[in-house]
Please model this.
Amino acid sequence: MTCTFETHNADLIKCRKCPRLVAWREQVAETKRKAYQDETYWGKPVPGFGDPLAKVMIVGLAPGAHGSNRTGRMFTGDASGDFLYPALYKHGFANQPVAHHRDDELVLHDMFITAICRCVPPQNRPKTSEIDNCLPWLEAEINLLKNLQGYVALGKIAFDSILRMYKQLGADLPRMQFGHNAFYEMGEGLPWLLASYHPSQQNTLTGRLTEAMFDKIWARVRGIIGG
Model:
């Protein structure tokens, strides 16, 4: 059977390969945060989403405990998404600057959003083995994006994991080091890679990542792909 996003996502949300993450995502979904007591949490692995003709893939770390683990859509319903989507909207990658729930009519253009880990990890710290368990899901999404030109890695773990995935696939990569707005060509026939600090509150509230710094990332992406 030919793999499609529909079949891929149906398989992904049934994954229970990492016992620690399964237990934690379900515990969070059951106990809930007080502000969301009346909501039904997603509590399953979170698929990527976006334009099936995307030229760019955003790769984050993992679902937020009370964001994507609640809403079932990446970077939706938490502070990281509140920082990300206005920037995407400004540069024409999204039809609206907000992302509150799966049915809010958000549409992405030229962009697909996913993450290294699909289940929320305790303290936002997945183990290397858990990342490795999840990388095949990322690889499958990459293979479905026939127009893909490059990646924006949000955070060092996403950046390093993309490189590890390609090395595991046998790619001979140049030396690359994470840094905000660091850009690399990974090699002939491979997508480019642009690094950014993650838009977590740990970075945005401390000033490590400002709106102006983040804006430069998406302006650079728009300049690369045009349109």
Notes: The two ends are 35 Å apart (CA to CA). The mean pLDDT is 96. DSSP finds eight helices and six strands in the chain.
